[in-house]
């Protein structure tokens, strides 16, 4: 006689067949991973502009800035302090929401947005009064290219900050649910860090 087959218990969970669910192959949160990959791609874009900058200045042995031109180092330095301050106020907002401090969240986000907008307005005013155009020389093209690229990122960041600020005033964030603040915050911190690199390379070195 054939041996009796063992009786197995009924499976309570259906087995999953096929590839894993989309965006779940990594332990990193999908939204966070997407932002990090986006930032990496943006670093490559900035890298291309910095390559052109160093080629013009070092390989081409051209004076920087071009002869007869001058960069407003003091104004740019003050503007740098303004932008870096926005990172501090953003961190304050992020810390506040984690501690359940809604007033700190609102004030921090509003202050961050206003500081970022001030930075962008100062940069536009710098373009108006700097005294040379991108078409005047290679140095001018690189200057406007690098600072303008960063300015475009600041503008995008301000749009994100505006959305987060409106949501903060509508009570959309809590101690446990604040990813909508953290992800744009990473982008804004990246914008600030990248400006330090641009400022140091273009205005100081």
What does this structure look like?
The relative contact order is 0.14. Helices cover 69% and strands 0% of the residues. It has a single domain (30-204), classed as Up-down Bundle (Four Helix Bundle (Hemerythrin (Met), subunit A)). It is mainly α. It is globular and about 55 Å long. Mean pLDDT is 89; it is low at 7-13. The N and C termini lie far apart (91 Å). It contains five helices and no strands.
**CATH superfamily membership, which one?**
Cytochrome c oxidase, subunit III, four-helix bundle
| Count of β-strands | 0
Name given to the CATH architecture: Up-down Bundle
Strand content: under 5%
One letter per element, helices H and strands E, the order comes to HHHHH
Query: Ends: how far apart?
Result: 91 Å
Précis, in short:
The protein is mainly α. The protein is built from five helices and no strands. Helix 2 packs antiparallel against helix 5.
Key features?
69% helix; 205 residues; Four Helix Bundle (Hemerythrin (Met), subunit A); globular; 5 helices; mainly alpha; 0% strand
Task: Present the secondary structure layout.
Layout: H1 30-59, H2 73-98, H3 102-129, H4 138-169, H5 179-204
Helix pairs in contact: 1-4, 1-5, 2-3, 2-5, 3-4, 4-5
């Amino acid at each position: 006689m054939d041996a009796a087959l063992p009786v197995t218990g009924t499976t309570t969970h259906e087995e999953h067949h096929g590839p894993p669910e989309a965006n779940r192959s990594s332990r990193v949160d999908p939204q966070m991973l997407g932002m990090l990959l986006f930032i990496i791609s943006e670093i490559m874009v900035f890298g291309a502009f910095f390559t052109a900058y160093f080629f013009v200045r070092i390989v081409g042995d051209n004076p920087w800035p071009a002869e007869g031109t001058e960069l407003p180092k003091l104004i740019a330095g003050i503007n740098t302090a303004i932008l870096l301050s926005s990172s501090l106020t953003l961190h304050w907002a992020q810390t506040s929401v984690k501690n359940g401090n809604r007033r700190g969240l609102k004030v921090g986000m509003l202050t961050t947005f206003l500081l970022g907008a001030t930075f962008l307005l100062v940069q536009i005013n710098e373009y108006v009064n700097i005294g040379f155009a991108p078409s005047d020389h290679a140095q001018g093209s690189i200057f406007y290219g690098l600072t303008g690229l960063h300015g475009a990122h600041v503008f995008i960041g301000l749009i994100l900050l505006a959305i987060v600020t409106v949501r903060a005033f509508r009570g959309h964030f809590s101690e446990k649910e604040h990813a909508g603040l953290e992800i744009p915050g990473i982008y804004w911190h990246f914008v600030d860090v990248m400006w330090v690199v641009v400022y140091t390379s273009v205005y100081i070195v």
